Amino acid sequence: MRGNLFDNDACEAFNILDGELILYRNFLPIEYANNLFESCINEDGWGQDEIKIFGKTYLSPRLTKWYGDQAYEYSGLKHEAKPLPDYLMDLRMKVETQTGFDFNSVLINYYRNGDDGMGWHSDDEKELGMNPAIASYTIGAERRFSLKHKSKPLKPVNIVLPNNSLLLMSGQLQHHWKHALPKVRHLENPRLNFTFRKVLKLTK
Ligand SMILES: O=C(O)CCC(=O)C(=O)O
Ligand SMILES: [Fe+2]
Predict the structure, then answer these.
(1) What is the domain count for the chain?
(2) Which GO biological process annotations does it have (predicted)?
């Protein structure tokens, strides 16, 4: 990273090669964020996906919920179309207004404590099209978000994602970079993350 393009209290654009990354801090009124956190965690619908590593099946270290106008498949897991509930329509509108992109789906990740995390991946499924914009809203525990370039010997990028922040990934980022949410020791506090995506209807 070669210094940031612009940086003020509310918004920070990271100067990285082959992709765009912007962090909006204090994105929503804190009351709104707190209510959303409580209602989303307490609402049912949480599942724990199975992941296969070298032929062995494990439960993924986080809980998830998926809503979207189109069916979507990631890491070999199929999500049927399921309309967004009202509270997510409202959040989506706020995210769309801030970012200027439109989204039709959201994957919600619930990291119950520091033992939960997400491994290295790119959100580059063909249903997301070329250069997808992904807006990732975080409430709860502050966690490190890491990125590594797939082919160039660049320094990894680490960003601490605070409570009530929105990270926008766009441009060629998913094509050239992988990202992860590493596990951390001795963290008891939970974190919720909403990743808004636009899933395209593919004609096969
Ligand atoms: O929890 C995060 O901040 C990252 C989530 C993520 O990368 C994903 O859902 O694809
Ligand atoms: Fe991701």
Answers:
(1) 1
(2) DNA alkylation repair
